[in-house]
Amino acid sequence: MLCLIFIIAVISSCSDVKQPSDAEVEKAYASAYEAMIQWFELDSMPLENYDVWTDIDGIHYFKVSHPAIKTLQDLKEYLQTLFTDSIVNDLLSRNYYKDIDGSLYAAAASGATNPSKGAETHEIIRENSKKIIYRVTVEDIDNADNFAVIGHTVHDMVYEYINGKWVFSSFERVR
After folding, report:
1. DSSP state, residue 149
2. Which stretch of DSSP H or E encloses residue 77?
3. Domain ranges for the chain
4. 36 to each of 45, 122, 143, 144, 166, how far by Cα in Å?
5. What DSSP state is assigned to residue 20?
6. How many CB atoms lie within 10 A of CB 164?
7. Contact indicator for 45, 106 with CB cutoff of 8 Å
């Protein structure tokens, strides 16, 4: 009898995952977009001064200006609140950020969005108690034909409950 009660308690606790509200999922997507796309693909984190840099292997690194993220460890810990460890490790392996003299520095970056992408729509799909799909559908535009919409591309960002927290296990650039 005691064994049966224990099994029921374990099963019950496994299904008691608190699902985030739609607003919380949208906020998580916005934070993940800023961290991955803004800080690693289009630009870097805000920088203090473009006139002062440290050169490492021919790359200029500038001191990051962020109210809470002061070191590479701080950046890693923040990213781990948003993404799985494999995504965090991939981002950090790009070496865009380094600790120099106890502070976080970034290699200045400049990217651009895809001009053949138009309006976006967003949808939250609750797969089960531990998996949410954040779907972004983006218009494909023919720039040569008066910006006509010629189709749509769907991107599914997977938001999952893993190791006691909600994180993106799949995330990609949509434009």
Report:
1. E
2. helix 72-80
3. 44-107, 117-170
4. 10, 18, 27, 30, 16
5. P
6. 6
7. yes
Q: Is the pLDDT of residue 168 over 70?
A: yes
**Taken in order 138, 148, 110, 69, is the CA torsion positive or negative?**
negative
**Please, how many CA atoms are within 13 Å of residue 19, restricted to the half-sphere of its CB?**
13
Distance, in Å, from the CA atom of 27 to the CA atom of 90, rounded to the nearest integer, reads 23
Predicted model pTM: 0.88
Strands (E), 90-147: 97-100, 103-107, 117-128, 131-142
How far is Cα 141 from Cα 77, in angstroms, rounded to an integer? 38
Give how far Cα 150 sits from Cα of 118, 145, 155, 174, Å.
10, 10, 17, 16
Give me the residue label for tokens 């797969």: 127
For the chain, the average pLDDT equals 91
Taking CA atoms, 118 is separated from 3, 29, 107, 136, in Å, by 58, 19, 30, 12
% of the chain beyond a pLDDT of 90: 80
For 13-67, write each residue's pLDDT tens digit: 455 899 999 999 999 999 999 999 999 999 999 999 888 899 999 999 999 999 9
The encoded tokens of residue 4 equal 């049966």
**Position of tokens 């609140």?**
81
Could you tell me the two tokens for 126?
A: 């609750």
CB atoms within 10 A of CB 103: 13
Q: In whole angstroms, what separates CA 173 from the centre of its chain? A: 9
